[in-house]
Automatic annotation (TrEMBL):
Coiled-coil region(s): none
Chain segments carrying region Disordered: 1-41
UniProt cross-references to InterPro entries, sorted A to Z: DUF1468
Segments crossing the lipid bilayer: 51-74, 86-104, 128-156, 168-193
Pfam families assigned: TctB (PF07331)
UniProt source species: Glycomyces sambucus
Domain spans labelled DUF1468: 53-194
Entry protein name: Putative tricarboxylic transport membrane protein
This protein's UniProt keywords: Membrane, Transmembrane, Transmembrane helix
Residue ranges with Low complexity bias: 12-29
């Protein structure tokens, strides 16, 4: 190899080395490589149609509230001229409206922001099912056991299902909350919640 060839190779080597360095330093998502488009596609969340279960629950709850309110008597009193119907009917209509707007937002791709340790988690059907069972048990037992007992079991059961492991402390707090709501309705609002087996004691 002549001196001229060596010199020419030495001139070409720095550019090749520079090109290799540029390739190594270039980010994976550089334009032209398709990395940015792929990352953006992966980062873009899809529609979380599981939220439609929540929408359906709210809609059914709203309908039940409206139907139950419509069955109330039309009696009024001097201190309550509008009667008991309007407030639950308004609440039922609002529940149904929230369900409709929530469903529309879900279908259009809306979603909540994932934060904290539970980011990316999906709807936990087991927890939702257990919570529904606790509420149904309360509805079935409230007339027999009374609100203080059934409400305390409702609060305690919901706390356990949601992860509380301080069973006795949670039960004590649930009993206090049940008594507070019972006397709060009786004294503050003049409404008597079912006393059940504790009739004559409370």
């Amino acid at each position: 190899m002549t001196d001229a060839d060596k010199a020419e190779g030495a001139v070409e080597d720095p550019s090749a080395a520079s090109g290799a360095a540029d390739d190594a330093a270039a980010p994976t998502g550089a334009p032209g490589g398709g990395g940015a488009d792929t990352a953006a596609a992966e980062a873009k969340p899809g529609r979380d149609l599981q939220q439609l279960w929540v929408c359906g629950f709210l809609a059914v709850l709203g309908v039940l509230v409206i139907v139950d309110a419509a069955r109330l008597g039309g009696f009024t009193a001097s201190n309550d001229p509008i009667g008991p119907k309007p407030v639950p009917i308004i609440l039922g209509v609002l529940l149904f409206a929230v369900a409709a707007f929530y469903a529309l937002d879900t279908v259009r791709g809306g979603h909540g922001e994932d934060e904290g340790a539970n980011a990316g988690d999906r709807l936990d059907f087991k927890t939702v099912g257990l919570l529904c069972a606790v509420f149904i048990a309360n509805a079935l037992l409230i007339d027999w056991l009374g609100w203080v007992i059934s409400g305390s079991l409702l609060f305690w059961g919901a706390a356990i299902v949601l992860g509380s492991r301080r069973y006795f402390l949670t039960l004590a707090a649930a009993v206090v909350l049940g008594l507070a709501t019972f006397y709060g309705f009786a004294i503050g609002l003049g409404l008597g919640l079912p006393a059940g087996v504790l009739q004559g004691i409370l």
